[in-house]
Q: What sequence folds into this?
């Protein structure tokens, strides 16, 4: 089947907080804009139950709720949306090409806002049990944890916040962390240490996860003593649930060899410009020090203005 060809001023790849904000700004600048998103609108933050540090919401706001507001605002300014995967990009000419299964988009400028995805632990047995007792989304799978024993791996903001959230459902939540202090923000740590249902297994890494249709046991190792232990379900139970929150990897594989990357993250200047004129990047997928919704949104605004300036320079 022949692909459909469409022309846009700006194609935004990724519909998370950075992409949606870029869309709002492009729409308001009357640029013909489309956002191509491979999953659900809003990106990774939609799996966060309660966002406490986005300005303007002193009582917190749900990640999904906030992203739906961003989405409504982008639609209000006439941004088109397409929910599909980008298969290929060609940034070698002035006219940029973004290709999906069914369409070829021709754009004057492209904004990359593809974000990050959860990083697996990388231990033996993990890949086979994803979706069978290993979950990367506490919000999605919290109901499966009711009355159960749950392990969260990692010591950053995500691990600790999600572990606290899971205590509302699980009987007991244990954080397995490879060091003896958490990386999470102090304010998050303070809350966690007050949480009765939360336990910590320090200086520990997961070496192997066993099971066929569910997690039946896991082998952990103390990094200091090298002692290994096998964790099994509580008496009378057949399984337990593991949530890896050990960091985030950039979703940039389709740009490999097309734009400059550093450890997989996109290199930009402070105007969000990549090394390719007319291709800008925003949000968690780029090299930066603080990955938050507020910084992703700020990136999106700057990226949109840079794209607009670039398009104006062509005329
Ligand atoms: P992160 O900050 O990179 O933390 C990853 C954690 O996993 C670290 O504690 C790390 O240990 C541990 N780890 C890494 N690889 C491991 C492995 N193979 N085995 C065991 N443990 C491993 O990731 P994140 O918590 O997902 O956060 C990502 C970004 O989003 C951060 O910038 C964070 O501030 C931001 N974020 C912010 C909020 C918020 O502001 N409310 C919420 C969530 C996320 P070490 O500490 O030893 O390195």
A:
């Amino acid at each position: 089947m022949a692909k459909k060809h469409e022309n846009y001023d700006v194609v935004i790849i990724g519909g998370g907080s950075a992409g949606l904000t870029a869309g709002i700004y492009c729409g308001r600048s009357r640029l013909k804009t489309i956002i191509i998103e491979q999953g659900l609108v809003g990106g990774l933050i939609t799996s966060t139950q309660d966002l406490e540090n986005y300005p303007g919401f002193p009582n917190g706001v749900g990640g999904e709720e906030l992203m739906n507001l961003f989405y409504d605002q982008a639609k209000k300014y006439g941004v088109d949306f397409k929910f599909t995967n980008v298969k290929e990009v060609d940034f070698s000419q002035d006219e940029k090409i973004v290709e999906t299964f069914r369409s070829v988009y021709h754009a004057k400028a492209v904004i990359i806002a593809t974000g990050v995805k959860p990083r697996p632990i990388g231990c033996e047995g993990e890949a086979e049990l994803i979706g069978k007792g290993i979950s990367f989304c506490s919000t999605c799978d919290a109901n499966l944890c009711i009355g159960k024993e749950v392990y969260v791996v990692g010591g950053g903001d995500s691990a600790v916040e999600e572990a606290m959230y899971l205590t509302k459902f699980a009987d007991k939540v244990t954080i397995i962390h490879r060091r003896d202090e958490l990386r999470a923000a102090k304010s998050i740590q303070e809350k966690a240490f007050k949480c009765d249902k939360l336990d910590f297994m320090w200086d520990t890494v997961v070496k192997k996860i066993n099971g066929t249709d569910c997690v039946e046991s896991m082998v952990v190792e103390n990094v200091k003593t090298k002692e290994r232990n096998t964790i099994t379900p509580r008496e009378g139970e057949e399984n337990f649930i593991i949530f890896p929150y050990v960091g985030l990897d950039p979703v940039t594989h389709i740009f490999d060899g097309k734009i400059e990357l550093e450890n997989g993250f996109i290199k930009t200047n402070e105007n969000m410009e990549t090394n390719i004129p007319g291709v800008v990047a925003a949000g968690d997928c780029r090299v930066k020090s603080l990955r938050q919704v507020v910084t992703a949104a700020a990136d999106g605004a700057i990226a949109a203005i840079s794209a607009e300036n670039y398009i104006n320079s062509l005329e």
Observations:
- Residues 53, 121-122, 153-159, 161, 178-179, 183, 205, 245-248, 291-292 surround NAP (CB under 6 Å).
- The chain has seven helices and 18 strands.
- The CA atoms of residues 154 and 246 lie 5 Å apart.
